[in-house]
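Q: For a teaching handout, I want to show students what a protein-ligand complex looks like in token form. Below are the inputs, and the small molecule is iron/sulfur cluster. Please produce the holo structure.
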Amino acid sequence: MSKRNQGITRREFIKLSGCAAALLPVALIATDRAVAQGKAAKEAVQYQDTPKNGQKCADCVLFEPPEACKVVEGKISPEGWCSLFAPKPS
Ligand code: SF4
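A: Here is the structure, written as tokens, with iron/sulfur cluster included.
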């Protein structure tokens, strides 16, 4: 049986796999930072610290207790609201 499989030896494959595994944490950290930097500014989504028409962050699927949001940057009040409000399923 040939040592080669589609132009790469078993030894080369193991080396490349090791490199990929070593780089995975770096890639995950970079992705995490990109997501963090991708949050919208409060002004861009008309964020306010008070509810609007009965809607508030505590009832939004994007709210992350106690004071954060998955898509809007900065400290977010559970009593706040923004134009991205998405109600939790009832
Ligand atoms: S209403 Fe806006 S700021 Fe509040 S949790 Fe939802 S998306 Fe985030």
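A: Two things your students might notice: Residues 1-38 form one domain. Strands lie at 4-5, 8-9, 63-64, 68-69.
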